[in-house]
Design brief:
Elements lengths: L1 H25 L2 E13 L6 E6 L8 E4 L3 E8 L7 E4 L24 E7 L5 E7 L11 E6 L13 E10 L4 H9 L9 E4 L8 E4 L4 E8 L5 E6 L4 E6 L2 E2 L4 E2 L2 E3 L4 E7 L6 E9 L6 E8 L18 H10 L26 E8 L2 E2 L2 E2 L2 E2 L2 E3 L6 H7 L6 E2 L12 E3 L1 E6 L3 E8 L5 E5 L4 E8 L17 E2 L1 E4 L3 E8 L4 E7 L2 H5 L3 E7 L30
Parallel strand pairs: 1-4, 3-8, 9-12, 11-20, 21-29, 25-27, 26-28, 28-36
Antiparallel strand pairs: 1-2, 4-6, 5-7, 7-8, 9-10, 12-18, 13-17, 13-19, 14-15, 14-16, 14-18, 19-20, 21-24, 22-23, 29-34, 30-33, 30-35, 31-32, 31-34, 35-36
């Protein structure tokens, strides 16, 4: 009998080990160790205190394949808490790792935290960034590339090279001074310039061979300005937007709004010389411009002459371009089935949420708000308060689901919703600036955008067939943008402005996607290594 029990035990152990090996074989692990430090940087020719990752500005590239597990051990050597978020990674079933203060405690000075992420069912181009204390104005951002698994068709030939382009506006003022200004009730000043991969005018070079095609993954990692991207003398074929393969339209320049990411193919088919890679601001006064260099390997001629111009303040041009970006229905996404097999336009929505941004003054200070509620951080991450059932941290439905037009007020705003709802969200913008909205944990379908006031009749113009699915969308001045979104990811998720001063001063809230189920198929358990802060301090995560 004892021998039989021993054999059964050995068999069970073998099966467990086999399962672990099988999982690991199917979903590889990639390990990263990051040291976060201060360092001197000179992106616009002026010495600044930057935030570096392993001594780098911008930070190191993350490369992964669909479903890879990413183990990122972050050591904080700053003098204040630090937190990284992952723009576009959906953190399926795992808002614990989302890296915003509503879900995750910041890493204290001289401490570390290990993120355990998975690029579950995703492909495409994204970026990471520091999410607290206005650290984004000092660096610590970098690119994320998620490649398709072998055997999954990609709707274009493998390019000869793959470039990450992290572009955006920049301030010469150190981040902590900008932060102090915001906290005293002042908005940001105008930015001082633009950067491409952490460099100013002609400070970065992309090397190409004549006749070959290259992929450029462009992300707007700036704080306040939309940008336009173009390459002198070259056309760009759009192939991917934030994880969606697109119809391969050709553009001479592309508008990229705050927080957005695009992939284009560029063929080096011009006479051999050096060409300007241009980024300029959109809808600003004055228009800011910076350049990098596209260098042909057989070139002996440096860039020269005037920088090619681009669009400046034209809204209709940008709106028309945005509407031209469509889903490639026959292309595979992260799985082999065509993207178009998901018929988003045939699903009936359960409710409509209307979100209106505003710029109120509250208690004599500049704030920003959503439906008249200006978000303030709680003393405890909302996800931890929800898990440990800590009272008094936040109240559900503390933000209305449509504009009230009443006096704005401060609140830790959380909107409640149910797992597997299918909802319509309308972003209504009555201000005279372009808005950019991001939803963590999700990809959504941008079904419509237009000028004026949204009404139910606006649905007659929706694209219910082949609009692109993405995680960040723009809303033009005095206009609206509508999205459809399937609430298929349990957790508490940040809905925010990508204008960094606006989100810092309240234009954000959290969406709680709730299920009563305790199944691991719906949500992963709290990480054993979760940092516990605020009113969650001293509690326990779960047994080892």
């Amino acid at each position: 009998m004892a021998m039989r029990k021993s054999r059964v035990l050995c068999f069970l152990i073998f099966m467990v080990l086999f399962a672990v090996i099988k999982v690991n074989a199917e979903n590889p692990y990639r390990f990263f160790t990051w040291k976060i430090t201060y360092g001197d940087i000179y992106p616009l020719g002026v010495k600044q205190q930057g935030i570096l990752i392993n001594g780098q500005f911008p930070g190191p590239q993350i490369d992964a394949v669909t479903n890879d597990n990413l183990i990122i051990n972050v050591y904080n050597y700053l003098k204040e808490p630090f937190l990284i978020s992952w723009n576009g990674l959906q953190q399926r079933r795992n808002s614990w790792q989302d890296g915003v203060y509503g879900t995750t405690c910041a890493i204290p000075p001289l401490r570390n935290f290990t993120y355990v992420l998975q690029a579950k069912d995703q492909i495409g181009s994204y970026f990471y960034f520091p999410s607290t204390a206005f650290h984004k104005a000092a660096g610590a951002f970098g690119g994320i590339r998620i490649w398709s698994r072998p055997g999954i068709p990609v709707p274009f030939a493998p390019p000869a090279g793959d470039f990450t382009v992290l572009a955006g506006d920049w301030f010469k003022t150190n981040h902590y001074i900008l932060r102090q200004g915001l906290e005293s009730g002042r908005n940001l000043p105008a930015p001082d310039g633009l950067l491409i991969n952490g460099r100013g005018w002609n400070g970065f070079t992309f090397n190409v061979d004549q006749g070959k095609t290259y992929r450029f993954r462009i992300s707007n990692v700036g704080l306040s300005a939309s940008i336009n991207f173009r390459i002198q003398g070259h056309l760009m074929k759009l192939v991917e937007v934030e994880g969606s393969h697109t119809l391969q339209n050709t553009y001479s320049s592309l508008d990229i709004h705050l927080g957005q990411s695009y992939s284009v193919l560029v063929t080096a088919d011009q006479p051999p010389k050096d060409y300007y890679v241009v980024v300029s601001s959109r809808f600003t006064s004055p228009i800011l411009t910076t350049t990098a260099v596209l260098h042909y390997s057989n070139s002996w001629e440096k860039v020269s002459g005037p920088v090619p111009g681009g669009p400046t303040t034209e809204i209709a041009w940008s709106l028309q371009q945005a509407r031209s970006i469509r889903w490639n229905l026959t292309a595979s996404g992260p799985r082999p089935n065509p993207q178009g097999s998901y018929h988003y336009g045939l699903i009936k929505t359960s409710r409509t949420i209307i979100l209106a941004n505003s710029a109120p003054v509250i208690n004599g200070k500049q704030r920003f708000a959503v439906n008249s509620v200006s978000f303030v951080q709680a003393d405890t991450p909302l996800k931890l308060a929800d898990f440990f059932k800590i009272p008094g941290v936040f109240n559900l439905n503390s933000i209305p689901t449509s504009p009230t037009w009443g006096n704005a007020y401060l609140q830790t705003s959380v909107m409640d919703s149910n797992f597997r709802e299918y909802i319509e969200i309308v972003f209504q913008n009555w201000e005279d600036t372009v808005q950019s909205w991001h939803i963590n944990g999700y990809s959504f379908f941008v079904v419509g955008m237009d000028g004026g006031q949204w009404t139910p009749a606006s649905r007659d113009g929706y694209n219910l067939r082949d609009t692109v699915a993405r995680c960040t969308t723009q809303v033009y001045p005095k206009s609206w943008t509508a999205i459809y979104m399937a609430l298929d990811n349990v957790g508490i998720w940040n809905v925010r402005s990508e204008s960094w001063a606006r989100q810092y001063l309240g234009q954000q809230f959290y969406l709680r996607v709730y299920t009563s189920s305790t199944s691991l198929r719906d949500e992963l358990p709290i990480p054993r290594n979760a940092l516990l802060c605020g009113r969650a301090s001293g509690r326990h995560t779960r047994p080892l």
